[in-house]
Amino acid sequence: MGSPVSPIVADIFIEFLEQSAIASVPAECKPMLRKRYVDDILEVIKKHGVDGLTQHLNSVDDTGSIKFTAEQEQDEQMPFIDSLIVRKTDGRVKLLVYRKKTHTDQYLQFSSDHPLTAMTGTDHKISVNLSTRYSVRIATRLTLLRGIWSTTSGKVTVARFSREARMS
Fold first, then answer.
1. Which residue range forms the structural domain that includes residue 34?
2. Exposed end of the chain (fewer CB within 10 Å): N or C?
3. Is residue 100 domain-resident?
4. Domains in the chain, number
């Protein structure tokens, strides 16, 4: 098992890597809004700039150990964290609760031999509550871009970037 500070050091390194990548990104690929939560990144970017930004992010790490992938919104919707961000045609943003297709709605029986926090859901509720609050803040920022979405008429998209580290 690794050191307890490993996740903290890794997060600091990734933050540094992303900041240097965004500082050196070409103007045509520069995101208008960028929000990160753990390993997911939500960006509002010009549609033609998504591939260029992905290539640029992947070129910043000299070791090739970190790979970024991009997913663009489909049908004016983008899942992020536990929320579904829906972009309306008039520029408004709607935020819905999102569950993956693999969600089974199965829960632990209270009489099972699991820790009490697992049965009451307090450990999960805390993380869901924090991520939902973060999603609300992101949606609030997205509503500020309502004018951009309405004036660019389909030239701007929401993209979600994920990163994956390969151990060598």
1. 6-165
2. N
3. yes
4. 1
